[in-house]
Amino acid sequence: MEIVCNKCNAKLNIADDKLPKGTAAAIKCPKCQNKISIDLRNQKGKGSTKDVAKPNSFNFDEGTDDYDASEKPFDFLEEEGNTALICENDPEIIKQINIVLGIMDYSVTVAESVRDALKSMKYHTYNMMLINETFDGSDPDANGLLVYVERLNMDVRRNIFVGLLTRRYATMDNMTAFLKSVNITINLKDIGSIDRILARGVNENDLFYAAFKDTAKKYGVI
Amino acid sequence: MNKPNKYTCNEYRQEMILLALQLRLAKENLSESEKETLRKEIRRLETFMEME
Quick check: A106 and A84 in contact, CB under 8 A? Predict the structure, then answer.
């Protein structure tokens, strides 16, 4: 849900799953400190919204429901600015990905743990997530972050390009990507070519959704 | 029982698998045993997806 401050017009992008259902809540605008009231009982608020709230069925522990501006990954983003979340433990790989994403004009957050990643996603829907299947000591077949992504509502999920960093599967293995609910698989031995891999993956994803998004825009759904 | 109003990657994956099975079943030159296996799998999936 996009919430616009009625005082300074700053935009807060909060995933629908993170909003309390059927209740009223107040958040402080991080830019001007104005108090924005949101009443989700009638899905209308004093701050204007462009979407409606969806049922909250997410069970991961992301901390308390209280708004804490320090947990927001970005203070200010240009309207068209893309954002990416890196969930990887190897500093060398993070460095390489960071350089590539910088060139691709992404504002980047590097998560230190699964909990940290979930916190970052509490107030922001990223355009891209790159997740190592063993991130934060996870079992690659039961990675909590991947389960979270798998359970996202499709209206949120389709706006995130998710890349799985792996040592088990080939790069751009479409069947594995389908089974793992990610958009692309990237074998870490190909990390030197991640610029071309990501560019191709993002382009293909944009093409795949182009007709859908154009139609949705035309009918005012997004 | 009401189904939860949530459409995720899991539901999408099930739909795609069901579609692929139906396409395979529509192909010619399948033996009766292959057809029966496909029909069984389609029924199982449809039950799981609460389509019946």
Answer: yes
Tokens describing residue A186: 């990237």
Across the interface, of B4, B10, B11, the residue whose CB is closest to A55 is B4
* pLDDT tens, position by position, B7-51: 999 999 999 999 999 999 999 889 999 999 999 999 999 999 888
Residue A181 forms contact with B (CB below 8 Å):
yes
Enclosing H/E stretch for B37: helix B32-48
Read off the tokens for A56: 């909250």
- In angstroms, the CA A84 to CA A125 distance is 9
pTM score: 0.70
Residues of B with CB under 8 A from a CB of A: 4-13, 16
β-strand pairing of A48-49 with A82-87: unpaired
Q: Residue B31's domain spans which residues? A: 9-48
Q: Complex ipTM, two decimals?
A: 0.78
User: CA nearest A58 in B: which residue?
Assistant: B6
The strand pair at A24-28 and A35-39 is best described as antiparallel
Work out the burial of residue A89: count CB atoms within 10 Å of its CB; fewer than 13 is exposed, 13-18 middle, 19 or more buried.
Answer: middle
Count of domains forming chain B: 1
Q: What is the pLDDT of residues A30-48, one digit of tens each?
A: 667 677 777 776 554 444 4
How many distinct structural domains can be found in chain A? 2
